[in-house]
Amino acid sequence: MLKVFSHYFPLHTLQQALFDAALLFALVVGTIWSHSQPEAGFWAAIMPSASAFAVAMVGLNSAMGLYRPVRRRSNRQAIVSVALSVVVSVPVAYLAFGVLPWGGQTNEATQWLVVLGLGLILLGRGVVNQRQAAVLFAPRVLIIGTGHDALAVYRDLTQPLQRSVDVIGFYPSDRDEEIQIEARDILPAGNLVQLVRKHRVNEIVVAVRERRGGALPLRELLDCKLAGVRVLDLSSFFERVQGQVRVDSLRASWLIYGDGFRQGWARTVVKRCFDLGAAVLLLTVALPVMLLTALFILIEDGAPVFYRQERVGRGGRVFKVIKFRSMRRDAEKDGKPRWATSNDDRVTRVGRIIRKLRIDELPQLFNVIAGEMSLVGPRPERPYFVDQLAREVPFYAVRHCVKPGVTGWAQVRYQYGSSVDDAVQKLQYDLYYVKNHTLVLDVLVLFETVRVVLTGEGAH
């Protein structure tokens, strides 16, 4: 994993992106070389622009999720994902020829060859991503522990579509731990430093919660770290690999003394300017869709078109969120709040469509302009459920230290949720966002939201 702008990117994903960028760069240079007669000084102009073109195309498809490692992806989702990348990238690439230095000096056939080559690269990447990924210079990882947590770490590190490390084995932490690992994978207990040197270990994951009573060789772990070996606890591991802060392995001291959770004025100003500009632009583009949605709601179920409901925002302050009404007018006629479910019988026919396409969320752009919400952040919850979840879920209130969002990291990483258990899973992604949020992560979430809507992966 490589940390860029406070966000973790898998090593093999970066290698794939760099390989495709180099391939696309070579395609551009080779095609122009063989199909045109460049003037003097032409190559001095083409090299940087061809590099920028290749990086921009790969960056666009990275944002669309082409390189994102996934745990489970059906053939349909894989096909839709690749098709989406091709449909978006090919027109953008063709239009890019008009603004690049070599666009005016190449003929139509050359341009189409480059665009066709880009499409073939994307199709090839889609096929390769369905197979087990190989990674150059894969780090060698030692897992300390032999219990449930150690097994969970091993499964995360060795998933078929995102394997990017070489797990050399498990180091037993103590005799009382319930063993979940096969005996052949457990290394003999002994001097940890010598074991690390023998197996050329680059990274150690401490998959043990109990740290009292000599369960861990702390002195030897320190020696390993001083020797250049990375040492991770469970919280840091799950943050890096799963993009979430696990509540079951979280301690208040980690939140207090660890990195992240910065809320400086500069970050607030940048985020607010981005929210305002993007919200105004999105409202302008989406206005025709919003007018049609309002008309269809009126035809099917009458007024009101909008639905206003109290939600908890930053600092625990209550505000009224605005959405297109997607449920019947008597959805809560008994006055008792209920979790919305994926197949809720209270949803109208128009409501089912606009919820699937996220059109019902568009009026929240007015909440963004008003400063009550942000484009990206934890989804705001109703006060009734906030009170319930705050009592049952540790650290739930941490998500309220930033503005709630129209979309969020949890929404593009986790499917529709309608229970306390689902709320815990989403909270773990929300905590990751609160800890690491930057403008780069916001842009990534917006692109992923488009991908989720268009590919129908089921996140909400």
Automatic annotation (TrEMBL):
The chain crosses the membrane at residues 17-36, 42-66, 78-97, 109-128, 276-299. Its main location: membrane. Residues 271-454 form the Bacterial sugar transferase domain. Pfam families: Bac_transf (PF02397). InterPro entries: Bact_transf, EPS_sugar_tfrase, Sugar_tfrase_EpsB_2. Keywords: Membrane, Transferase, Transmembrane, Transmembrane helix. It is a multi-pass membrane protein. It is found in: Membrane. Belongs to the bacterial sugar transferase family. NCBIfam families: EPS_sugtrans, EpsB_2. This is TIGR03013 family XrtA/PEP-CTERM system glycosyltransferase.
